[in-house]
Amino acid sequence: MSTFISYLSHPIAEAMPVYGGKADLGLICVKNIVQGDSCNTWRFCLENHWGTHVDCPAHFFVKGQKVTDYPSDFWLFRKPQVIQVEAKAGQIITKDDFSNNLDPETDLILFQSGWWKFRGEETYSKHNPGLHPDLGLWMRREFPAVRAIGMDWISIASFESRDMGRKAHRTFLNPEGVGHPIVLIEDMNFSSDLDDLKEVWVVPLMVQEIDSAPCTVIGVFDD
After folding, report:
1. Does the pTM exceed 0.90?
2. Per DSSP, what are the bridge partners of residue 43?
3. Can you give the pLDDT at residue 65?
C-alpha cells in the first residue's frame, strides 16, 4: 500500500492568531538580492507559544521537562487516533463529549473539531473551546500509552475560562502526577482528511532552555 504525506501544522506567518489576540513577527529583511546583496536574509521575533507548538511540562512546572529534554524518537507517533468533537464557542470538553472508544495502544490523540476553519477570525483566539482538567487525569490513569494530544484550536485553555485552562494544563503536564506527563500540541491544521492517518511526526524547534517550542507536524497517510 502506498502512502502520502501532508502537513498537520500551520506555517509561521508575519501576522497570525495567538491565544487571546494576534501576533506580529516583525519581519525585517536584512539582506536582499534585488538591492544588490549577495543573498537573502531575514530576521524575525517569535515567541515559543505562537503558531502550531508543543507545550512541555516546563511550561507550568519548574522541574518539568523542557522541549530539548525529550529524545528524538519521542516525537514519532505510530498509533495516532483521531477523535471527532462537536465543539461550541467557549465549550469545555469532557470525555462525555466524544463517542469514540480510545484504543489502549494509542500514543497520540488528535481532537478534530473543525475550529481550524475559524483561524484568522477573532473567535479563534478569544472564544475557543477548551479541555476539562479531569480529562487529563483520566487519560493519564486509564491510557498510559498516550504521550501527546493535539487539537485544531488555539489552546487546551478556553480563553473564556482561563483559570480552568491553567488547571487543565497542569493535569496533563504535571511531572509528579499519575503515570507520565502528556505533551500538548496546540493550534494544529486539520484541513486534510484524517481518515487514513497512519503516523505523525512532530518536529519542534530545538532551542535550549525554553520550556516549549513551535513545531512542524507531518502526517503520514495510507493512500
Report:
1. yes
2. 28
3. 98
Domain that holds residue 155: 3-9+48-222
Number of compact structural domains in the chain: 1
Which CATH number goes with the domain that contains 180? 3.50.30.50
Is residue 186 in a domain? yes
pLDDT digits (tens, 9 = 90+) for 21-75: 999 999 999 999 999 999 999 999 999 999 999 999 999 999 999 999 999 999 9
Residue 72 maps to a domain: yes
38 found inside a domain? no
- Alpha-carbon distances of 117 from 67, 73, 122, 139, 185, rounded to whole Å: 28, 31, 12, 27, 18
> DSSP 3-state helix, strand, coil percentages of the chain (rounded to 5)?
20, 30, 50
Distance CA 47, CA 24 (A): 10
